[in-house]
Amino acid sequence: MAIVRIVNADFYMSPPISNLDVTYSEFRGSSVKQVPVIRIFGSTNTGDKTCLHIHGAFPYIYVPYDDSDKEDVIMYQMASGLDKAINISFGQASSNAQHIYKIVLVSGRLVATYVWISCKRTSVSKNFLL
């Protein structure tokens, strides 16, 4: 197993490489034109300098969702809305560029945790989606 001490990490967008990256989005029904590649600069435990290119890691977020009968419609509307907002933020409001690879409906349980602050004896509840 290789061990790398991370000095710096960034990412870049690149055309997908066949047999390494996804090239088609079934959610969008179209080919993928750009994929994120994480780049890690560092050194190994033996002191050799290294640069790792990590493919197949897509950024993600969780968005709270109340159960609705129109799940498919809402997912596509959300993807379209996010694409439009990203294009506007890039100063390309008329662009049709797609930035969302897919949206997946997941379910989980809310877990409440309580932290006691000793001087006030106050209960703080935090909810997490697992």
UniProtKB/TrEMBL annotation:
GO biological process: double-strand break repair via homologous recombination; error-prone translesion synthesis
Gene this protein is translated from: LOC108734295
Residues in DNA polymerase zeta catalytic subunit N-terminal domain copies: 4-55
GO MF annotation terms: DNA-directed DNA polymerase activity
Span of domain DNA polymerase delta/zeta catalytic subunit N-terminal: 56-109
Name of the featured protein: DNA polymerase zeta catalytic subunit isoform X2
GO cellular component: nucleus; zeta DNA polymerase complex
Organism: Agrilus planipennis
Catalysed reactions, as listed in the record: DNA(n) + a 2'-deoxyribonucleoside 5'-triphosphate = DNA(n+1) + diphosphate
